[in-house]
Amino acid sequence: MSVLIVGSIALDDIKTPVEEHPNLLGGSASYGAVAASYFSPVNLVGIVGEDFPKEHIELLRGRRIDLEGLQIVPGKTFRWSGEYLWDMNTRETRSVALNVFEHFTPTLPASYKATPFILLANIAPDLQHHVLDQVAKPRFVIADTMDLWINIAKDSLLRLIGRVDMLILNDGEARQLTGETNLVKAAKAILALGPKYVAIKKGEHGCLLFGAQGDFFSCPAFPLEDIHDPTGAGDTFAGGLAGVLARESDDGPVGFEALRRAVVFGTVLASFNVEAFSLERLKTVDAAQIEERILLLQRMSRFEAI
Ligand code: AMP
Fold first, then answer.
1. How many CA atoms lie within 13 A of 73 on its CB side?
2. Are 230 and 89 in contact (CB under 8 A)?
3. Ligand 1: which residue has its CA nearest to atom 5?
4. Which residue CA neighbors atom 18 of ligand 1 most closely?
5. Is any ligand 1 atom within 6 A of the Cβ of residue 12?
6. Which of 49, 156, 174, 181 is packed most tightly, with the most Cβ within 10 A?
């Protein structure tokens, strides 16, 4: 089954304490789509300007990513610039230029409207609503978000959370959204808004998955020595998770066991992504490398019953 992904497609300038690279392929939908494409076909919805390099289009086209929903319009592509502090975790946005995003109305091609799995990757909640309005009875809808939207579009975001099956956000955002410092309480407060599941990412400390029926799973992060660029880790996690759900689900409802597996795959894919800038590492991963890390993660987190 396929996944529809809407989100940003960007040109990023990234600075870390040791390296600085301008003009990189970035954006929540770019990372999400390439990650998901390892597991299932993707229908991509997004917008870029005429300055968007052809090689990036070819990268997406070369995978199982349908580009009928990608608008290429006069003007400049969305640009974002970020800087990581010494811990490689704290990030400051240096600049944002919406450019073609300013007048973006995502219109779904007819062939996308029955896509069973939907990933509303990080963009303005109003645009996420707009996409959801156009799809017919999706099987499972996942939304990702960021602190910016909690700050400037909270009402729209709260309404969106009530319309989706699963919300993905990081620990700081969960606290900010709910006003709860404790993540278990924050997860309960989010589930009370309507979704069946919430995944709270904790960066290098892994991810917590909560279900509305009281289910809980804690997935460690894959321990890495060399992190070059954390950008897109969250988007890669969400895309990998959505792709695995689409690949593995049968006709029944998406259950907690399937989500646990999907979280593990998302975690492993994100671990590859941070090993290089932009999508340079993510785009070269192969199935054997993914499987090897899944097995290592399983081995390092399993323990015997007492
Ligand atoms: P992440 O590291 O997972 O939070 O995602 C980083 C990506 O998000 C970068 O490639 C940026 O281009 C993109 N991004 C940054 N700010 C925004 C925004 N306001 N809306 C959509 N995408 C954004």
1. 18
2. yes
3. 232
4. 123
5. yes
6. 174
